[in-house]
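Incident review: delayed structure delivery

Summary: a single-chain prediction request sat in the queue longer than the usual turnaround. Root cause was a stuck worker, restarted by the on-call engineer. No data loss occurred. The affected request and its eventual output are reproduced below so the record is complete for anyone auditing the incident later.

Affected input:
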Amino acid sequence: MLARYEVRVFQNGFRLRPVETGRGVGHGRTLILILTAVYLLWLFVRVISQPPWLAQLPPPLLELLRLAEIAGFITLVLMWGLLWWPGQQQPVTAVTPLNLEQLYALQPYEFEQYVAELFRQRGYQVKLHGRRGDNGVDLRLTQPNGKEAIVQCKRYRKSVGPDVVRELYGTLMHERVAHAFLVTTADISEAARAWTQGKPMTLIDGRSLAHLAATMQKSGGE
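Output delivered after worker restart:
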C-alpha cells in the first residue's frame, strides 16, 4: 500500500503515523480473495451439492468445465504467488523529513520504521527485524544488484564511540553481508569514523540523517 508518514504532536513528543495515499495493492488482494471465494463456492456446488442439472450437461461441455476448473486453479495459484513472492517490489513510501529534535522524540521502533522507509525510498528491499533486532541487526537490506547489507539503528543522544562500530563490524562479518550501516540520532566520534576507514561501513549521524531526508523529499526520493 502506497503511504506517507506524517508527524503528529502529542504531549510527550512527536509520533509517526502511516497515512494511506493509494490503495492499489489492497484492491489487488481484495480481487484475488473474491475470485478465490467464487472458485471455492463453485467447487462446493459441483462436488458436494452435485445439482441434477450438472449431470445432464453434454460430455463436451462437462470436459470444458473441467478444463476451466484446472485453468482457474492455476491462475489463482499464480496470482497468490505473485502477491506474496518475497522478491516482489515493496511499496515506495514518501517520508515526511524530521529534524533532529523530532528524531529524538521517536520511540526506538518508530525510529527503525522511519529509517526503513528512507532506505526503501532509495530503492532497497528492506526487512525489519523487530524491536529487539537480531544479533544487533535492526534492518536487512537487499540492494538492486542482489547484494545484502545490514543496518543498526541507534536512537542515542550521547556520542557514538569506536566500541559501537567495532561491534557492528563483527556483526557484518558474522552475517557475511556486503555492507553495514550505522544510523543514529547522535554524533559520531572522530575515533569511530577513523576506525571504519577502509571498511565496508557507512556511518550516518543525526544531523546527516535529517539533511538526507530533507534532500530526498526535495528531489522526489531520487
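Verification: Strands lie at 3-10, 13-20, 94-95, 125-128, 139-142, 148-154, 179-184, 201-204.
Action items: add queue-age alerting; document worker restart procedure.
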